[in-house]
Amino acid sequence: MVDPIIFDIGYLLSAALFITGIKKLGSPRTAPYGNQLGSAGMLLAVITTLVKMQVGNGIIGWELLVGGLVLGSVIGAWLAVKVEMTGMPELVALFNGFGGAASALVALSEVLARIKTGEVPTDMLNLWAIWIAIGLSGLVGWITLTGSLVAMFKLKGGFTIPLTKKWVRFPTWGPPWLNFVKVGLLIASFAFVVMTVREPENALWVWALVGSSCLLGVLFVLPIGGADMPVVVSLLNSLSGVAAAFTGFVINNNVLIIAGSMVGAAGLVLTFIMCKAMNRQLIDVLFKSFGGSDKETVTRTKVGSDPEEVAMMCDGISTCIIIPGYGMAVSQCQHAVKEFADLMEERDVEVKYAIHPVAGRMPGHMNVLLAEANVPYEQLIEMDEINSEFAECDLAVVIGANDTTNPAARSGEGPLGGMPILDVDKARSIVIIKRSLSVGYAGVDNDLFFMDKTMMLFGDGKAMMSALNTAIKEY
Amino acid sequence: MSLTIAALIGSITIFVLAIYLGFELISKVPATLHTPLMSGANAISGITVVGALLASNVAFNSGSPGIAAWLGFTALVLATINCVGGFMVTNRMLEMIAGKRRKKEVS
Question: Residue A210: which of A347, A313, A108 has the closest Cα?
Fold first, then answer.
């Protein structure tokens, strides 16, 4: 007979692997190793659990358990290998939703099984502890699932209706009264948790909780638009950890509690980093819609330039800073951007990239895209470091970025007030590749576009970037 | 399996300490690692696969596998997708970001 203590040691080891793994993920040098440690911890936890179950009451459905593990691995691996780097945000959101759903389903399965077999705890302590853990695990888990799914469609921009093949843009919708609905639903959900404890044999309250928390997840993410997405994506990541921690209370397993709450806390740290980069409070992101209805209409005009003019500008400069934004992700022109940088470097121009922390739709979005295009890591400079260099910069090339470069943020007023920005306006000359002069997500007109030293290249990022590259080669 | 008050307090202690640990571990992260960190942490939150294994086994063991068993099985598949997919995709990203860097250092 195996001493059960060995399983606790197995779980302890896997928790230690997770902790070291997360720690190492925080530094570029050790990050790949950290990820491997994390996956080793996971494998150890799964093996420990399987052996523990076999030694305990015995496993009846081996085929099903192994089948489930294999099926999940195949689907997960297929998705991970197949995804394009540009589709990364959606995939991370999807995986996140699955994690939340799994926690919620474990809680649901546990409560239904206990009600069915009549194993409802009779003493106060067990009833309250287990039933509240089940309730909270479900609440957070379902919010994570539906919230992540909405976030995924928002990151994609929309979806095609099956059969008709019609592309529908995913709406961002949130009138002010929706906030009352959200708060009401949240209170109702907590009331359902309490009701499951008071009437532990009544599965109706459990299903009511499932319904209210699913709806809550949708309503929380629905009003949140583009520029706030990095905050929401990392908040949902945090929530999936919290759900796993509550599931740990349900099945009374420490490794779930440790891993889950650590991921929850780490996700929250990232969420606050994102909030700080936008100078917004988390509560404002969740409850106050940004920019929104009172968008300024552009009354000024600016004559667009053509790639040949810009190519002429590029001749004879010595420093160049490239500022990528969401537009680069949409037009997927990171390779053309890299080609431009190579052309510049051939002409002895020093090239750097200025990365705003919330550029794109997920934390670190620009870094992933540029890494895919083989841009050396050392050339990606964070905002705080590069801002002092703009004054010495001969040419700033902005590709599909708007709000993160808007000097209006410095005034401290309006929707962008106080948001840290890249000081692109200090550069000696500026080229902006953009579809039009229209306002960004915040709805604030950008003075940068109308400066005398600015040249606008109107058009799709990829098309314009390639045209510019051709023009430089021919010049 | 009955829970004692001491065991519950023990679990809550671990919960609170692990939260502090999470805050301390991730204080400053370079932007390059924001995405891989998020997706790696996300894969770790798939630890709920342990719960899913237990839930499906208990549910199938209890005789007639009802809705509870199949919910457990669904949880098992989803949690495994989360873990395996999450770690693999993180690895792909890190290969891109850090792998190249290392090669450069060597050369």
Answer: A108
